[in-house]
Amino acid sequence: MIDIHEQQQRYWQLLHQPESLFLLHQAQDVEHFVALMADFLNWPELNLEQMLAFIALQQQGFIPDLVRFSQVWFPSRYHSQTKTISWVPVFQRLSKPFLEDDISDARRGLLASFIQPQTLLEPLLSQRESLPAINPNLMIFHWSRCGSTLVSSSFSLLKTCRVLSESMLCSDVMHHDAWPSTLTPLLVDLCLRLQGRLRPDERELVIKWNAWDLACWPMLLELYPNSRVFCLMRHPRDILASHQREAGMHMAGRVKAVFPYPLPLTEPNLDAFRMGVLHGFAQQTAALYQSSRCILMDYQQLNALEPSTLSTILDWSLAAEDIEHWQQHWRFDVKRQGQLFTPMVPAQSIPLNESQTLSWQQLLNAYEQLLQPLDRDKTMMLAELNPLTGLSIKPANANDNLFMAELFYSTKTFFYELGLPLDIAQNMLEQQYRLQQVSYREQYPNAISYILFYQQQAVGKLMLDINEQRVHLVDFIITPSMRDRGLGSAVLEAVKLEATQRQLPVHLSVESENTQAKSLYLRHGFQFQSRSETYESMLWP
Q1: What are the distances in angstroms from CA 449 to CA 154, 465, 479, 493, 505?
Q2: Per-residue pLDDT tens for 238-268?
Q3: 3-class DSSP state for residue 123?
């Protein structure tokens, strides 16, 4: 006599046992699969029909232990009508250009065919804190067909990197307006903790969002304030031409409207709808860029970009072997396996009727306004990186003395930690700063100080002394609030480029206790030359 209650308990345990699930995943045929299930459930007479009926009954009210359950089961789809999610077993590393491709592969096995768990989403929130928190190293936003897949798939080549490329589950949850606004961020974070859970050999997480997710950037940046942000755009003419050949979901009206022009669509309004979507992208991108939280790039810049330069812009340290793999990868079309990549020839102007002319001009103006900060004057230093990072530079003058002093104070916070009265600590700092400036004038009388700007905001100082023997980096500070965003790497690469053009080495001295600065310089190829009690001398190359 079969005790169904006992079999149910065994079944729930089975769904939380990676080793047993892997054996089911490897089952060679249906008969083998049923035999394994009979063994796991202690049900010797179990046959296929009984197994299917039994599994179907277990879907009711299933709430797994997420910590163990998610070691194998991967949330794959959100069902808005029932507010449930479906799960698939995933044993392999995510490696496809799009997450949906990995999910499709996972559905092909016998295990995924016979066992298809579904759970209500909201009850799982109580277990969110039990899952490892995620801190995306990079989030990629894009308009449409802007080369973002090339960028995200490049990171998937790194064995230590997990890439979530266009998660439909997260997008569907994020855009489902049935959830209270206070609950949506928690649900999105729960889904990302499940999908972005790092394997033992993974250390970094990259998330490439769907194009229409750009509308949700404020919520996502609030959730993950330490994430680097990369945004890609493209000329609207080329995007519209591409979608005329093969329309994406957001351009075919199959995505909930997050930009102007309500759905459902009628064919005569299709061009106007698509321009409305792109205009929404432009508006959201402008707001994101003005927040000083993203690196903005146009498709044409990406097309001409070296992978090594991209890693520098993102401050993502890569070994020479990784750079070589990237360079090979960028030669091929990521969406057509084995085919060499051929840049798309810009399409002819999209034919527009009179009623659309104003909409088109507004869209074009919005795009061109975004291009302006990327088309800076290329005559000054940092020329090669300004268009890609939003950085600019100017020689310092007397009006910048207060800003430069405050930068110095930001590096000497230990003075405030000595327990001295605030005015005494401040006086000591001011005295130290004056002594430093006297020392600089004596040792480097020909040095020039520059103020660094990011999107017209002063963010740092660079002091260079250049002679016939070397480029000496005398002083280099990025304001604390703008650190860890790749700006320091961009400046160093520009200094190295300047030195290369002059055929000179770059020399600098760094405080021995400044481990963060030393790590940055080492990542950029500087080598230690000599050491004293307080400073270490470094040289490139």
Answers
A1: 37, 9, 15, 18, 19
A2: 898 888 777 777 887 777 656 554 444 444 4
A3: helix
